[in-house]
Amino acid sequence: MSDTRPVIPEGARTLAVLSKDRVQRAGVVRKTVDTSLAEGRKPDWLKVKASFGDNFKDVTKLMEGLELNTVCAQAACPNIYECWEMREATFLIGGEDCTRRCGFCQIKTGKPAAYDTDEPRRVAEAVEHLGLRFAVVTMVARDDLDDQGAWLVAETIRQIRARTPEVGVEVLPSDFGYGHDTTQGSTALDQVVEAEPDVFAFNLETTRRLFPTIRPSFDYDRGLEFLALARERFPATTAVKSNLIAGMGETDDEILHCMRDLKAAGVNTLTIGQYLQPSAQHLHLDRYVTPETFDHFRHYGEVELGFDHVESGPMVRSSYHAGQQAMDAKAWEPSPGQPGGGPC
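Request: output the structure for the sequence above.
Response:
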């Protein structure tokens, strides 16, 4: 190896290793495709400058020291430099391996290695150490567990509440098997309802037409039913949230149709962002959606449909500005003088 090779910061090296591992252990190779579009390189509005400051390095060490996973790293979120430098992170519980496969997702598909019941305590410790005011906790699908991982989600909420009761909490689990067994999924959901998160999210991600191809382990209509059930079970003060990804082959009209379906299901907070193809083994990138189109989605959702909050933009991800979303939905308010910011 040449001695002139640039030195890679420790945080960047960690991300590079994770990225390589995800591709090698993807579980199902989708299709090797050309990752470029006919119109050429990534547009300027999607270019992100990497920043490896002291906070980024500190958060990296903290996550590694507590043996915790984050969506920021596992899913290669483009906002990771901004968020970690602001000491913000979205936790990924349940392990590194997801039991389901979605064509766009960079989280590994495979058989989970173990069930870490101490993980909720460590997440709560990290929330306290980072000084978060709003914590987002998501999880891989765990179809291998009797309750699909519902206890793990609920216990994480309880542990955060016990250690930092002033911190707002959003949880983003799978559908707890609701698409395959409505009774089991409903019972599992009740465990999370009892733990009282401020925001409950389940991401629809794509349109009805594309669902069978992009999310073969889920079902569009059952997903809407699950969100409607959540709206029914949670108190009115809990926000119910979902996410859509643009650029995977859908049309603008199909996005608008999804937004109407989600509003009818009782969703009051919505995020919409640009798909970025993680590797040649993932779903082909169909188009770059312009910032103006994302602005139109936001206006349509908030003004014409009446969502409490629509976060819509090329760099938006499900947990982007999550604390502000919860505030706009009147689901949570920070304590006076509370330090820090909400996760991206």
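The two ends are 37 Å apart (CA to CA).
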